[in-house]
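thread: overnight batch results

M.L. [08:02]
morning all. the overnight job finished for the chain we discussed friday. pasting input first so we're all looking at the same thing
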Amino acid sequence: MNSRGKSYGTINYEDGSIYEGELMNGIPNGMGRKTYPLGFRERYVGQFINGREHGKGQTTYRNNSFVAPGSAGVVERVDFHAGLYENGMPHGKGNRVWNDGSSYEGDYLNGYLHGKGKHTSAEGKVYEGDIRDNGMEGLGKITYKNGEFFNGFFLGDGRRKALHGPQRSQMKGLSAEDLKEIQKEEEEENAALGGNKRRQSKQRQSKRRRMKRQSKRQSKRRQSKRH
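M.L. [08:03]
and the structure it wrote out:
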């Protein structure tokens, strides 16, 4: 390979990893493939910038064999992440598939599941909504395998809170965006209700004042007639 300018070649690293692909001044830049002999990563194929995984790419992980419960033996399944990378870590939109059949599609931040996403468990439970530091936190919904739904807020510590309103957690067919609209409408309704209560209270106070003034006038007329 050429040591300067654009070229194509192979680099053998001290840790045993191997890069093969486009180079700029002897450094991985452009499309390439890197294999890792140790650790949980097996290989990365995609874009590189200044020697780091950066841009579009796919990482295949080493634990790609899975013993399914009740199965007679080992079932080979793919374990990978495909999407955007920044400085060697998933960052931006991405798809992750684990060897047990669970999956994630959505946002990443510095290697963490973070932002908006959809996670499907191996048992078929689906979560759609806010994700923070690899966990469900914020507004979202869970769809269970039997078809039941839970819509509400996830507090990040295992607790969750249903949206206000009758049977809100039982409503079906709603997306996370729909839930935000519902929450906004309920807040507006509550604010309007509070305004109506204040107006009704003022109306009752005004009525009591009118009745009191009318009672005083009637009392004065009766006293005048006696005299």
